[in-house]
Amino acid sequence: MMDLHVHSVYSDGSASVEEIARKAKERGLKAIAIVDHSLEHKKGVTEEKLRRRQVEIETARDRYDLEILSGVECGILPDGDIALPNFDFDIVVASIHDILSTREYYHRIKECLRKNGDKIDVLGHLHSEMFNCGRDFSQDVEIIDLLIECDVALEINSLHRAPPIDFLEMCSNKSVKYSVGSDAHTLDRVGDVKWCFEMARRFLKGGKFILSQLL
Ligand SMILES: [Zn+2]
Ligand SMILES: [Zn+2]
Asked: Which ligand has the minimum distance to the alpha carbon of residue 71?
């Protein structure tokens, strides 16, 4: 099992890197990604915070013999822009954190993939229940094609229960790369990814897991 979406005290999570790593090890995870919110978030990382976090990640990696990816979750801003710190990340997630009109929602996501597809690894919690922006099925198809074209993974997120089943069904005959994440902000949810792997098994057989080399 792997959990590639965990928040630490370096953004709005309540647990330290050390505590998250220990919990992940206890729960038998092989890899985790600490993806704190980025510069646009009021509690997000700064380059200075990232340097401190990196030291903790490396210490915990050695102590627990666990793969810990150093990541960030960028909000998707107007016109698909992202605020990405100048830092050498292992994984970059981009997600919408606003309630938008359906038109604006799709505009931001498609522009983000077109403009920043080479900088991001994962599209986070698409069509989250928490940020309900409506749906347009023809543009869903465009998103799926852009994900494949830009080699960006679709995240299956157990906190947001996203993407919804009907979206996953649309991916089932295509080779969409995927990632999995609990979006844990507290220690008790670290590794809560059973639902994610279940969805991947059911709907994303044609796609590859983003860290398939570690499975
Ligand atoms: Zn998010
Ligand atoms: Zn998150």
From this structure: 2
pTM, 2 dp: 0.97
At residue 128, the 3 state secondary structure works out as coil
Question: Which tokens is 96 given?
Answer: 């919408």
Tell me how far apart the alpha carbons of residues 135 and 200 are, in angstroms, rounded to a whole number. Answer: 21
List, for residues 65-118, the tens digit of each pLDDT value: 999 999 999 999 999 999 999 999 999 999 999 999 999 999 999 999 999 999
What counts of helices (H) and strands (E) characterise the chain?
6, 7
Ligand 2 centre and the CA of 208: distance in Å? Answer: 22
Ligand 1 is an ion; its neighbours by CB within 5 Å are 95
Ligand 2 midpoint to CA 185 (Å): 8
CATH number belonging to domain 2-214: 3.20.20.140
